[in-house]
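Below sits the subject:
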Amino acid sequence: MRFARTLCFLLASLTASLPGAAVLAAPAAGTAPAAESAANEAVLEYIRAEMQERRIPGMQIVVIQHGKVVLSGAFGVANLQHKVPVGEGTVFSINSATKSFTGVAIMQLVEQGKLALDAPLSRYLDGLPASWRGVSIAQLLNHTSGLPDVLDAQGDLLPGGMDGAWKTALGTPLQFSPGQRFSYNQTNYVLLGKIIDRLSGKPFVEFIRGGQFEVVGMPNSSFGDTGDIIMGKANSYRFAGGVLRNVVEEFPPAMRTGAGMNTTATELGKWIVALQQGRLLNPASLAAMWTPSTFADGRPAPWALGWPAIRRGPGVQRAVAGNGGGRSAFYVYPDDDLAVIILTNLAGGRPDQLIDTVAGFYVPALRKSAVR
């Protein structure tokens, strides 16, 4: 307990004293509406308090309203060992929020006429088990495929590395008939990566880089894990038994469509605005991607296409999200023309739990608790 109190004090002291503990971009005083300025101040107070409560070493936040950035801030420490502050250019792991970029890539292939969402896997990939062949592309995107996972119950790759895990998955029965239930797993996105490779004629990393990063202007965004040299990247941490530990992140290349991106809140903000402006997808494709899915019997399913769907109530969309590693999250509220991005370097920091509250400072109707 003494250690936890000491660490909490250390994190609070570093957060308050380092140059990274500052608002990087917000409307100058007198230029923003009074309500917006008040919202920004309330958010900063709330975020600083939550960082201290949750013992989050470092964080970035960006709020976008009506297509413009109304708040952008960086706080705390990117690297505790060397007391490196978080800045606007600090890069964070977004883990499974990578799936949202894969969703965009798939929709781009749909727009190019190379892919149909309701088409079976067998149309695009050979050598799959008979039980897998009828699974649709949409069912991969929204995790209703019923396919076995390449990860075990603890989230570790099955034995034998990626090749061994894939071989095991290929020989494992379906969990349920496609479209009947929701089961989050990485096999879905491994397959989507294979489809992107084949239909685009290039590795999915290059397809996403050229079709999204370069279009938007995201020079600091990349794919990689702890084994890769990633300039400006924040260290990742987690608490284990009350002790703060370094996190070693391992994302085999074949799995990086599901988890493997590193980026900044500023660049994610630019990407979301580009989506809203139709620079990456046409409006019809964007609307389809963000529409919550349904099961075969018509019941609402938890995900849209590559994006978790956050609901106000049964059948009512509240937001679509990217959520990764319990450390990075972004919500887009399409009906309210608002987006909130919070990236941290603490696994288990759960910034997704903060986003609705932040959004509520700008759109009071969003203060109600979300129903997932």
In short: The chain has ten helices and 14 strands. Confidence is low (pLDDT under 50) at residues 1-10, 12-20. The longest helix spans residues 34-54.
